[in-house]
Amino acid sequence: MKRLLVLAVALLALGLLLAGCGGEEKKAEQVLKIGTMSPLTGPYAADGNDIRQGAEIAVEVVNEAGGIPGFSKIEIVSEDTACDPKQAVAAANKLINEKVPAVVGAYCSSSTIPASETLAEENIFMLTPASTNPKVTERGLKYMFRTCGRDDHQAPAAVKFMKDVEGVKTIFIVDDKTTYSQGLAEGVAAAAEAVGIQVLEHDHVNQGDKDYSAVLTKVKAANPDLFYISLQNSATGALMVIQAKRMGIDAILMGQDAVYHPKLIEIAKGDSEGMFCTFGAIDKDAPKYKEFQSKYKAKTGNEPGAYSAYAFDSATAYLTAVKAAGTTEPAKVREELLKLDFTGASKQINYQENGDSGSNYTVYKIQDGKFVPYWNSLTGEKL
Amino acid sequence: MDFFLQQLINGITLGGVYALIALGYTMVYGIIQLINFAHGEFFAAGGYMGVILISYLSSQGVNPYACLAISLVLSMGYCALLAMAVEQLAYKPLRQASRLAALLSALGMSIFLQNGLMLTQGVYDRPYPTEITSGGFEIGAVSISYMQIFIVALTAFLLVGLNILVFKTRIGRAMRATAQDKVMSALVGINSNRIIALTFAVGAGLAAAAGIMVGLYYGSVNYTMGFVPGIKAFAAAVLGGIGNITGALVGGLIIGMVEIFAAGYISGEYKDVFAFIILIGVLYFKPTGIMGENVDDTRV
Predict the structure, then answer these.
(1) Which three-class secondary structure state does DSSP give residue A323?
(2) What architecture does CATH give domain A152-281+362-376?
(3) Which residue has the higher pLDDT, A115 or B61?
(4) Which CATH superfamily, name and number, covers A31-149+306-351?
(5) CATH of the domain spanning B1-285, picked from 3.40.50, 3.30.70, 1.25.40, 1.10.3470
(6) How confident is the model over A239-284, as pLDDT tens digits?
(7) Residues of A in Cβ contact (< 8 Å) with B134
(8) Nearest by CB to B14, which of A211, A215, A270?
(9) Where is the signal peptide (chain A) (predicted)?
(10) Segment A50-65 mean pLDDT
(11) Which of A98, A227, A257, B158 is disulfide-compatible with A251, CB 3.0–4.6 A?
């Protein structure tokens, strides 16, 4: 009896296998998988989920428009980096096993850099929507692209604003020691000294801190004209803003692109009023953005986050290039990617030879609970 | 001088929070020699329960202070129940097993609770209503917020309450007896299982109070918020002499102060280093902690 059972199971298994083979023979069931990697858990999960959702919408749009010839359907495979270099490399390896030809991500520059080295070995594309550290595109990786701006453009833009618009003479800088935040803060310090703004102090806090009272007491004692906050995420930025206001610090507050997020205002509420942030200019009245925004809201119930539009554009750019090349073969897709010049949801997408797509930093001011474009760093005009 | 005073006030506030969390570690260790690594998660759960209740009650038009008081009591109760459930599930079956097994179970519980919070409450920070907490006054150049006073006062109040519970009541006597010798105390008719569950409940209630205070003080809660303060409070408990209630208070205050002064006078990036250097130093030179570990009278 037992033997019979084993035989039956074996036959059944074999049958399934054969059925599988039969399916294969019919051919053309080819799925195009696009990877995303971003921090889906941990303190940076807010931005990480924005990125994943942005890419998902790009795929949705392309699928609805009939997909790409030669592929039955396009799918997103998401991996979590938790903004940790080791986990990012593990995520890259998982995506390699999934046979993705391209990855949208990661968020933290400290994750993007090691993960991109792993992906580069397999000639897999990496298009980052959020990593702004200059090193990302300066290592000569053939398939590394960047849709957002660069810190070495952001820092001078911020400093120019401080000097030309606000007439700032002294600043106090705080960062949280990540590759991104510290690199940017050092850039700001150097640029400030170069134009004669005095850097009273450049201090650091740890990631995951909640209590900033000690460092804020220092800021208050130093009494700078402007307090520059370079933290890796908007929630800690909000905590710092709340505590600074309670401490009675009346310096101008300024943050950067990682602090720029609707969550900052949601958490810090009135305390964030009047704060400045640098972020790439995204024209929120442009039809492309509106279209993206309504799709995003319908799918997630939220407003697009800071990097959603960049993630959307990164994925769209790659899919467009694949469609034009008619294949996922890396060299051919790269050629098409470099030829692209289209209006994305975030900006005009036009990749350069090194993979960058140009920076267009704008200073935003928080007014009535909203980020309002305030000053254009390219033209030096008030908006 | 103003700078020093201001940092002193910051340090006492932070130290008070650590002390409240450390009490839970110390009490549980005192009674069953278990380092409950899931304790930081009760702190986070308390913070979340607080924001949920405060938001709900204030949307019903309840007076902000009544809101705060009700939420505080309810969250403490909620975390007490949660802790008893965790004890029943993860620790009680392992009471006769090796200490390592219980420790691993605690670590697992911590990860489980943290992810549970993430899945039910989302990955985003949850803002606290700030109307109650803004405001303060200045003495010279030193600013003190009402929230800081509230934290210190509540810490003191809860500590006095705990002392009365442990040293003046029958339950407290049973707790101390169980801590000294579980078998003998059971022989004289103390239900040690109930006492252990109660100890967990009290410790978690204190952590929940700390969670709400932190949420109010800093403006938001996050599902990862329990981890770092949990470790710091554990350090505080060891520093003061684990198993010792007064020790937890002293240890908490020291860790809070060291952190703030290291950040204030050296740099923010060094504050954790100094807190743990002190801990290592104490363990090296006086392994029983500052207040001693085995003073039976003060041990729970």
Answers:
(1) helix
(2) 3-Layer(aba) Sandwich (3.40)
(3) A115
(4) Response regulator (3.40.50.2300)
(5) 1.10.3470
(6) 999 999 888 899 999 999 989 988 899 888 889 999 999 998 888 8
(7) 246
(8) A211
(9) none
(10) 93
(11) A227
